[in-house]
Amino acid sequence: MLPVDRGDGDPSRGGAILRLGFHPPEERVPGFEIIDLATLHERRRRRGRRPDLVHRVDFHTLTLITEGSGEHAIDFVTYPCRPGTLLWVRPGQVQRFVRPGTANGTHLLFTSAFPPHSSSADRLVKEWYGPGCWQLGAGSQYAVLSTLLGQLRAEYDRPEATVSAEILQLLLATVLLEVERLPRPEGSGDPSAGGDVYARFRAELERSYATTRRAADYAHRLGYTVRTLTRACVAATGQPVKHVIDARVALEAQRLLAHTDEPVATIARRLGFVEATNFGKFFSRHTGMTPGAFRHPR
């Protein structure tokens, strides 16, 4: 995968968060690529990009570490990487290889449109939220995923004229369904417990978090009551609907403060705050520090 800059700039030069689109150097199968993690790092080095560059992607990446060690950060959570670590980064999430180290493994990249629409995997890839890391060790779950990824790699590496996109789609769907079977990491909640109500709410939240933080607005747009949304959010996350809304806004604020040089007032406006002071109070309430302290920690 050799992604390209979508025009959001390079944070190392003071711009906004770099956003990378799906553009492999050789697109053998549209919307899909599978490579070694070490190959990805080598491509970045050839392009002159730092290995720890902060960026977002417009596609999914699923990485199974098979050797070595390192660290990877997804939305301000740093995960240790060792054999048996599984990482899933979703479109729009901010990530960086904090310490690539010696970690290597299978790196799977695919667009949200690639998995077969007839399978349950289609639902999984349309969700922007979900666990980012599992520590599988060397157990049976690791063996199953390693085998499936090996089958994907074998199909992908066939002579180009004989590669079957359909086989890759079905194998990918199987991988994703196996991932869904994994025990959820502690504290990650269970979105499926909120049912269709929660799924529809999260989709609307992703579209509208920068324009409204009122639970009543989401309820009206979706045709539910605030009480119904709260029940779904509590079932899925253990938190009421207003907390889920505010947490999404606070996450985006953290992303922009940490990874861009935009003035606080500009970030406040981007997130729907008329006054920067109100944004400051909101941010402090949800993170325990001011925007300035978060951006420039001592």
Description:
The chain is an alpha+beta fold and 298 residues long. The protein is built from eleven helices and eleven strands. The strands form two sheets. A six-stranded mixed beta sheet has the order 1-2-4-9-6-7, with no helix packed on it. A five-stranded antiparallel beta sheet has the order 3-10-5-8-11. Helix 5 (195-208) crosses helix 6 (215-222) and helix 9 (264-270) crosses helix 10. The longest helix is centred in the last third of the chain and has 19 residues, at 241-259. The radius of gyration is 20 Å and the shape is globular. Residues 1-15 have low confidence and may be disordered.
Walk me through the topology.
Elements: E1 4-5, E2 18-21, E3 32-36, H1 37-46, E4 55-57, E5 60-67, E6 70-74, E7 77-81, E8 85-89, E9 94-99, E10 104-110, H2 121-126, E11 133-135, H3 140-156, H4 165-181, H5 195-208, H6 215-222, H7 226-237, H8 241-259, H9 264-270, H10 276-287, H11 291-295
Parallel strand pairs: 2-4
Antiparallel strand pairs: 1-2, 3-10, 4-9, 5-8, 5-10, 6-7, 6-9, 8-11
Rg over C-alpha atoms, rounded to the nearest angstrom = 20 Å
Order of helices and strands, N to C?
EEEHEEEEEEEHEHHHHHHHHH
As laid out across the biggest beta sheet, the strand order is: 1-2-4-9-6-7
What percent of residues are in strands? 15-25%
How many distinct helices?
A: 11
Summed up, what is this model?
This protein is of the alpha+beta class and 298 residues long.
Protein traits:
single chain; 298 residues; alpha+beta; six-stranded mixed sheet; five-stranded antiparallel sheet; 11 helices; 11 strands; 43% helix; globular; disordered N terminus
